[in-house]
Amino acid sequence: MTTQQLTSEIRKKNSFLCIGLDVDLDKIPKHLLELEDPIFEFNKAIIQATHHLCVAYKPNTAFYEAYGLKGWKALQKTIEYLNDNYPEIFTIADAKRGDIGNTSTMYAKAFFEDLAFDSVTVAPYMGKDSIEPFLAFNNKHTIMLALTSNTGAFDFQTQKIDDKALYKHVLETSKQWENSERLMYVVGATKAEYFTDIRKIVPHSFLLVPGVGAQGGNLQDVCKYGMNDQVGLLINSSRGIIYASNDKDFASEAASKALQLQQEMEAVLLTLS
Ligand SMILES: O=c1ccn([C@@H]2O[C@H](COP(=O)(O)O)[C@@H](O)[C@H]2O)c(=O)[nH]1
Fold it and tell me: Ligand 1 center to residue 273 CA distance, Å?
């Protein structure tokens, strides 16, 4: 999917919501556990109830890898279900990969070719030759951690090298890499006060913004400081939506939570036009 297609979907749905599919078998409704593939059945019900309210889904691969082969199969079925039924929806494998070049190429093949995700998250720590193999894939997007939502972000990311915060070095340096127009960046919603500086470095890039909902990030502040003239934001909520209820009404309750966020987004978008 191209960024133009993503932007047009945002305009069509008046939404830049990304729903995180972080499935924890201890948190999903008990009646699903009797089914052959509870993880996929949970995802399918959430997707059916919310697809008209969001433009992206983001399974975090940790929640699938934790269940071994059956978890990986559920991830595969989920992405196939999305691509077959909702090809207009942007898909993100939140896997935070990155390694020496030949290994990164295999990670990229796993997520872009085998699983056919539109994008994958990567960690910048190993530098240019660990990320360029992902960027080599046409019409795919590589979403690099810039300033994360957790408190540990202050351990390294905001520390200064030559009087400049490390996350700024990450943003500036990555812009020089081959096919850097295929990069997007992760910036936590809990770091709203940093968005103005970040937009000075990457004014046109899409930012994936986790941390709204369960982590307490503020949607209005993120929009105020992080939005560009193409919107340029994908705001993620996982637990705040998918675990709105752990009873038989889980999908409709998830849809209610997604609707609240979509309506807030629509109100923001109206002020732009
Ligand atoms: O800085 C980051 C990077 C990734 N995440 C991931 O996003 C979701 C957030 O889930 P919530 O339940 O909405 O808090 C989860 O998969 C994280 O691993 C992040 O939170 N912060």
Answer: 30
Tell me how many domains the chain contains.
Answer: 1
Helix/strand/coil for 226: helix
DSSP 55-68: SEEE-BTHHHHTTH
Triad 208, 87, 246: Cα angle to 5°: 65
pLDDT score at 20:
98
Pocket test for ligand 1, best of 28, 61, 149 (most atoms within 8 A of CB): 149
User: Is the predicted pLDDT of residue 101 greater than 80, yes or no?
Assistant: yes
- ipTM of this complex prediction, to 2 decimal places: 0.99
CB 20 within 8 A of CB 238: yes
What's the CATH code of the domain at 165?
3.20.20.70
Domain of 172 in residue numbering reads as 3-272
Quick: pLDDT tens for 30-76: 999 999 999 999 999 999 999 999 999 999 999 999 999 999 999 99
| Sequential DSSP letters for 132-186 | HHHHTSTT-EEEEEEE-SSTTHHHHTT-EETTEEHHHHHHHHHTTSTTGGGEEEE
Substitution candidate for ligand 1 out of 215, 234, 261 with most atoms within 8 A of CB: 215
This prediction has a pTM of 0.98
Residue closest via CA to ligand 1's atom 21 equals 149
Give me 187's structure tokens.
């910036």
Q: Residue 253 Cα, ligand 1 centroid: separation in angstroms?
A: 21
Q: What is the pLDDT of residues 206-236, one digit of tens each?
A: 999 999 988 999 999 999 999 999 999 999 9
Pairing of strands 119-122, 183-187: unpaired
